[in-house]
Design goal:
2 strands, mainly alpha, elongated, 18 helices
């Protein structure tokens, strides 16, 4: 009993862990850790594997035996971790929980768990429920554990973005801003900046088009914040977002931007109803549905191909992206018209012709 207790104390100190922090990782009280180290009690058998892993040794080493050479369980979790962003987050959450339970000191797994907690918490099934708050609160706690113990710069950067998202969704805007200000500024010169100095011909043109696309996405994302999330949407921002898309994509082949245009026309329909203009509302909903259908057709193939002069020949391959078979943009528009604001339209022939 004294032997394992002494080993726990030595390894804990070697890993710069307090009794409280070791207890936090294992889900026990710090008094339990103190009793192990004093030889008063021993850890439960179920804690031996997690304890060894958080202390950075094998169970054989913790117990003073010859270390094993392979850890097939960790190989499995590593493979799941590197693919977790492509998977169904609700199902993946359980795997992440297992990984953290069995390897409580692995910051990558903590980040994995926090990310899935955020994804599930902000999903349609949890939104607005107590479960959303519980999952987001747990995500913040796990992200903070990563930030406290992780030395890897890239994982810390991703963790800070995760904290910003989770704190914002909890309404903790001051905390979100604090974490946002901790994100390191990007280098003055990026890889793309360097490539622009040496590429020629079509490669250089493709890079320019890629940067234009990034700028357009960023601009539209910023403009949408001024109307999509506001109780009183800024109509000028909504109009400017549509104008920006059409200024670059002049031939109507909007590809992925059909989803933005569908949402813009949805909001125009809602504005028209508030103004009592039912004809304009029906026209806006019909236009939204046209864009929604074009988006669903584009998404089916997974390849975006632009043909307008500015982006001519530019493509993006989304075939490897995870696809939610239960969601479509046309389905989203159909759900949108169930809002009470559109009740006055339901008996109109032109409305029923669009939505059945």
């Amino acid at each position: 009993m004294n032997h394992i207790g002494q080993r726990i104390k030595e390894l804990r100190r070697k890993n710069d862990l307090t009794q409280e922090k070791l207890a936090d990782f294992l889900g026990v009280t710090y008094q339990s850790v103190s009793k192990w180290e004093c030889g008063t009690t021993m850890p439960d058998l179920a804690l031996i594997v997690p304890l060894a892993r958080v202390l950075g040794v094998t169970t054989d080493e913790l117990l003073g035996m010859k270390p094993v050479e392979a850890d097939e369980r960790k190989v499995y979790f590593d493979a799941e971790f590197f693919q977790h962003w492509k998977k169904d987050h609700a199902r993946d959450l359980e795997i992440a929980r297992q990984a953290v339970a069995e390897y409580p000191g692995d910051c990558r797994y903590l980040y994995w768990l926090a990310s899935d907690e955020w994804y599930v918490g902000t999903g349609d099934e949890c939104m607005g429920t107590d479960e959303e708050t519980e999952l987001l609160t747990s995500a913040v706690r796990h992200y903070e554990m990563v930030l406290e113990h992780c030395e890897d710069a890239e994982l810390r950067r991703r963790t800070l973005f995760g904290l910003v998202h989770a704190c914002r969704d909890l309404g903790q805007y001051d905390d979100a801003r604090t974490y946002a200000e901790m994100v390191s500024e990007a280098p003055e010169s990026t890889r793309e900046d360097a490539l622009m100095l040496c590429l020629q011909g079509e490669e250089l043109k493709t890079l320019y088009k890629k940067r234009i696309m990034k700028a357009l996405v960023t601009l539209n994302g910023a403009l949408s914040q001024l109307w999509y999330y506001e109780d009183e949407p800024c109509e000028e921002a909504l109009n400017a977002e549509e104008a920006a898309i059409k200024a670059v994509i002049t031939d109507g082949n909007y590809q992925h931007f059909h989803i933005s245009l569908a949402m813009i026309w949805q909001e125009r329909a809602r504005m028209a109803m508030r103004n009592g203009d039912h004809d304009a509302a029906v026209f806006a909903l019909e236009t939204a549905m046209v864009h929604a259908k074009h988006f669903d057709e584009m998404a089916e193939g997974g390849i975006e191909r632009y043909t307008c002069p500015i982006l001519d020949g530019y493509t993006e391959d989304h075939r490897g992206d995870r696809k939610d078979e239960s969601w479509s943009m046309t389905g989203s528009v159909r759900d949108f018209v169930h809002l009470p604001v559109f009740d006055a339209l339901r008996e109109r022939d032109d409305f029923m012709k669009i939505f059945g």
